[in-house]
Write a structure and sequence with these properties.
By secondary structure, this protein is mainly alpha-helical. The protein has one domain. The chain has six helices and two strands. It has a two-stranded antiparallel sheet with strand order 1-2. The protein starts with a helix and ends with a helix.
């Protein structure tokens, strides 16, 4: 037998609040699931940067695999500038229709490996 308060609560069936919206990756536009995000310094910390943006971990790794830190600081210190980089643009085009929780191995480009 249910009490008066429980009967009222069941009768009203208050809907649960909607889940909090996941932030979107500014690079690829896909939602960032919990545990799949990284803070990216637009200007690397080693170059004096402090401003960060939240990106997919995969997107973040791809940026650092393609572009050396000094070049990031000089030429690619914004999302718009990153999207103009040919390698990043090609990556974003490829990843934009993939599932948000996808994980893929990232390999450093030859240019980044040669620079150290």
């Amino acid at each position: 037998m249910l009490g008066r308060i429980r009967r009222r609560a069941l009768a009203q069936q208050i809907p649960a609040p909607p889940p909090a919206a996941q932030p979107a990756c500014p690079l690829c536009g896909r939602p960032i699931p919990e545990g799949h995000g990284d803070a990216h310094h637009l200007v690397p910390k080693s170059e004096g940067g402090t401003v960060t943006v939240q990106l997919h971990r995969m997107c973040h790794r791809q940026i650092h695999a393609l572009i050396p830190e000094r070049e990031l600081a000089r030429e690619y210190a914004s999302i718009a500038a990153l999207l103009r980089h040919p390698g990043v643009a090609r990556y974003v085009q490829w990843v934009s229709n993939k599932p948000a929780d996808m994980r893929e191995r990232t390999r450093k480009s030859v240019g980044v490996r040669a620079r150290g």
